Each structure stands twice: as structure tokens, then as C-alpha cells.
Amino acid sequence: MTKGISLKEHLHTIYKALDDKKAEDIQIIDITEVSCMADYFVIATANSNTHVRSLAGEVEYQLEQEGIAPDHIEGRATGWILLEYEGVVVHVFLEESRNYYNLERLWEDAAMIDVADI
After folding, report:
1. How many percent of the chain have pLDDT more than 90?
2. How far apart are CA 118 and CA 114, in angstroms?
3. Which residues contact 87 (CB under 8 A, 6 or more apart)?
4. Are 10 and 66 spatial neighbours (Cβ–Cβ below 8 Å)?
5. Quick check: helix, strand or coil at residue 96?
6. CA–CA dist 91, 45 (Å, integer)
7. Is the dihedral of CA 12, 15, 20, 21 positive or negative?
8. CB neighbours of 20 closer than 8 A, spacing ≥ 6?
9. How far apart are CA 46 and CA 23, in angstroms?
10. pLDDT of amino acid 5
11. pLDDT tier, 32 (very low <50, low <70, confident <90, very high otherwise)
């Protein structure tokens, strides 16, 4: 990510952005031991399509303040927005989509991170 700022500090920024905008059930999964696609997944639930866009926009804004632009964004017009940053993939879901894709179950071999540890 950005020189001088650790990945955990970026995770904290992402968590805080989601929490400040009232995301529900924010989970951080360390996938470094089970995948080479990223180091962490951050998963959050929104209560409407507008809320999905608001949460994703806030993450994007807060990381831009740290000089970080997303590598990739998908799903701006759907109930699931994915923001990819070097090492971190942020998934913002509507509850129905989150339950359907159930990423936590898919990545159950990965370590769940306690928010207090970031």
C-alpha cells in the first residue's frame, strides 16, 4: 500500500470508514495462508443499495486521503461492491447477497481477525 503506513493501519482505516457509516457485521479475514490473491478480505453488510454505494464510497474516500487508489472496483450498480487494493479486497454486500455468497464459509480455513488487533 502506501510507503510508511502498514497494512494493518489500512485495515483500521477501512474498518473505521465502514463502521462510521453504520455497516453491519464487519468481518476481517486473513487469507494469506490459504490464497495468493490477497492478504485480507474485509466483508460488510449494508441495508440498501444506497447504503452499499455509500459504504464503498467512504472506504474509497478515506483511503484516497492516505494516497491510496483502488486497483479495481466492481459492482457499482449491484447489491455487492468489491474494492480491490494491494493486499486487501473489500466486499460490501446487501444482506441477501452476503448470505447467498457466504464468503466466510468459503474461506473458513482462513483466520478471522479480531478488530481489536488492528
Report:
1. 68
2. 7
3. 1, 7, 38, 39, 40
4. yes
5. helix
6. 9
7. positive
8. 58
9. 6
10. 67
11. confident
